[in-house]
What we know:
Elements: H1 11-18, H2 21-40, H3 52-75, H4 79-103, E1 105-107, E2 110-116, E3 119-121, H5 123-144, H6 150-167, H7 171-187, H8 192-212, H9 214-224, H10 231-242, H11 266-298, H12 303-327, H13 345-361
Antiparallel strand pairs: 1-2, 2-3
Helix pairs in contact: 2-3, 2-11, 3-13, 4-5, 4-6, 5-6, 5-7, 5-12, 5-13, 6-7, 7-8, 7-12, 8-9, 10-11, 11-12, 12-13
Amino acid sequence: xxxxxxxxxxxxxxxxxxxxxxxxxxxxxxxxxxxxxxxxxxxxxxxxxxxxxxxxxxxxxxxxxxxxxxxxxxxxxxxxxxxxxxxxxxxxxxxxxxxxxxxxxxxxxxxxxxxxxxxxxxxxxxxxxxxxxxxxxxxxxxxxxxxxxxxxxxxxxxxxxxxxxxxxxxxxxxxxxxxxxxxxxxxxxxxxxxxxxxxxxxxxxxxxxxxxxxxxxxxxxxxxxxxxxxxxxxxxxxxxxxxxxxxxxxxxxxxxxxxxxxxxxxxxxxxxxxxxxxxxxxxxxxxxxxxxxxxxxxxxxxxxxxxxxxxxxxxxxxxxxxxxxxxxxxxxxxxxxxxxxxxxxxxxxxxxxxxxxxxxxxxxxxxxxxx
Length: 371
């Protein structure tokens, strides 16, 4: 990039000196790790370019490039543009999420995906960043405009979205949306007693899901008493095989035995091929992004930015935690990708949208930019 002066008033110049470059570089590192792990799964050079595995990895690399461009483009938006973009995305992807109930591709009894030429898309992943911003907008507006029923509107948006996700069903995504809403309400000053009530309701909902939803029951029972050769046990073996430094790029064996090795269990693949130190580095990068955003939000006077930014980074960090913890058998397995690292173009684009919004919200702004 050419040297940019602080006196540069061009769009690029204003963006460069206002964006959080530390978070931007950390996100670029995650994209780079995703690229490396995509290459690690590519067959040898003797295979033809039309080999399905080769095409899948090349497609993932293209999606990672598109994700980077999406993130950069969204990070240049103003606050007003972020709100309008989120509203538009929310309407479109809410309707597409509803459409999955009628014409979605069914996997393991759940209809969450739409099949398009060449790839599939999970609309609820794109709905998430829009949902976070819309809820934050409603809550903040209730403080800004006396008499505006913002919190009731936010609750209505949440209930409508949670009901739709439950019908798919997608318990993990419903849980993630719920935790994001509670985070935003907490940042708005929700009393601890109400958080305790919400926590109790989540426990009850979890018990009911275990009792009445078959795949939830199965995953919990496998977690409590894992059968020999289960995905969780195989993933743990991969970490053991990798040791401190790993077996080397492409030398791992776990990807030949785990159906979801490059998506849900990509952290295990990283552990086997690159070792403990590399996994610790990945954790540190995620932690740095979350902590950096929270530190910047501490000094933010705009309530909407605090709520939306807090919700976006909480969802990002929680998703990363769930993926890595399930790979380590700390919690039952859940079909959540590791942000910007797991295989899946739809997931990478959705997360880049979420983090592009975060970069836009946390930019340094002058008084005239805070609309």
